[in-house]
Amino acid sequence: MIWKLLRRNISVIQLVAYVLSCFTGLAIVLVSLKFYSDISGQRRADGNDAVGSGDYLVISKPVRLMSVFGAQPDGASLSFDPDEIKALASQPWARKVGEFSAADFDISASVNLGLGSLSTALFFESMPDEFVDAGLDEWHFDPSKPMIPVIIPKDYLALYNYGFAAGRGMPRMSESLMSQIPLNITLSGQGLRETLPARVVGFSSRLNTIAVPDSFMTWANSRFGRSETAPRPSRLIVAVDNPGDPAVRDWLESHGLEAAGDKLLSGRNSYIASVGVTVAAGVGAVISLLAVVILLLSIYLLIAKSRDKLRSLISLGYSPSEVARRYYVLIGVLNLVVAVGAVCVTMAVARLWSEPVEALGGTLSSAWLVVAEAVAIMAVVSLAGIFVIGREVRKCF
Predict the structure, then answer these.
(1) Roughly what angle, to the nearest 10 degrees, separates helices 12-44 and 263-305?
(2) What is the Cα–Cα distance from 218 to 197, expressed in whole angstroms?
(3) 106, pLDDT greater than 70
């Protein structure tokens, strides 16, 4: 009976306007969040890299014509001095900076592939262990039980399989097979020569170098190295928040530095995508906010029209909470319809990019995450409406 009395002053047009506008805004927000979480999942899919997951830049000084004589045209060295490293580490976008250490001795490797043997000269570099995936338990070197763990670029294995092996009739190898093949590494320098066993323990698409543990490089340079002091690093690895940040590119260009690979370009594309997602989500949030304003104005107008009826109800012995409960149910039903509709639209739109993301090895976020986001947003909207309704109804009593 109370509901029959109160619903006569409800404007269906206002409620429909609220539902449509709130549905539009919430759908835009959910689609934006779903898209961002899915492309973030694609980036996290690269976490099986031997170099720890995250965004890293390998920075060096460009090699120019005069560099063949060991110096840059301005007389500066190709290596980094402590002041340059400190300046780089002080940048707000640089979370941590590591130095590459190069081998100061001769290295050769040989392997027996059954159908033939393969030997070649090599180069080694090391970097701080904190940049290597923590899952690599074998990433250490003990001179008393020498076994050199090695990380090689995935591109090197591809070059062997589709270039060298294909042209010479050699067997092709997968990553798992390559990891099981024993290698013999010969180190020479300072009149010493020693052959040690080695094994590939990981592959990386982030680095274009053959990496060994820092502990091995320190031991080998002290034993076979030609220089009495450790040379300055010619390359640095930098953990950054976002490689596409324009501040990163501007700083590197202003200091005459370059980043290896296409990290800056791919990071720039990711940065642009994140900005686009933020703008879209912002537009959706504004639309949703305007919808909430429509709802609140409708509540004020509804209660103003029903003021006399509400005062009559008090004389009949009804409490404010009992009267307001009817409006609470109305708001809850409307917001439930908005949430369900927005979730359905979001999952339908997400099908447009789900296959490309999965084809790139990405992992799509769970549909329950979309549901949780919709529930959280609409819960805030519902609480705001309930608060206003309760306050206005109490004023009438």
Answers:
(1) 160
(2) 18
(3) yes
What rounded mean pLDDT belongs to the chain? Answer: 77
45 — pLDDT class (breaks 50, 70, 90): very low
φ, ψ of residue 394 to 5 degrees: the values are -65, -30
Give the C-alpha separation, 274 to 384, whole Å: 30
Whether residue 143 has pLDDT greater than 80? yes
More confident residue, 363 or 236: 236
Nearest to 340 by CA among 383, 314, 299, 371: 371
CB 197 within 8 A of CB 148: yes
H/E stretch holding 96 reads strand 94-99
State yes or no: pLDDT of 224 exceeds 80: yes
Cα–Cα distance for residue pair 160/145, rounded to 1 Å: 30
Output the CA angle 297-303-305, nearest 5 degrees.
Answer: 100
CA distances in angstroms from 212 to 63, 113, 147, 231, listed in the order given = 25, 22, 11, 17
DSSP state of 256: T
CB 363 within 8 A of CB 320: no
Cα three-residue angle 342-343-349, rounded to 5 degrees: 90
**What's the pTM?**
0.58
The string of DSSP codes covering 114-180 is SS-EEEEE---EE--GGGB-TT-TT----TTS--EEEEEEHHHHHHIIIIIHHHHTPPP--HHHHHH
In this predicted structure, which of 65-79, 249-263, 297-311, 374-388 has the lowest mean pLDDT? 65-79
CB-based contact 152:204 (threshold 8 Å): yes
Mean pLDDT of 44-71: 62
* Phi and psi, residue 244, nearest 5°: -85, 0
Distance CA 245, CA 256 (A): 17
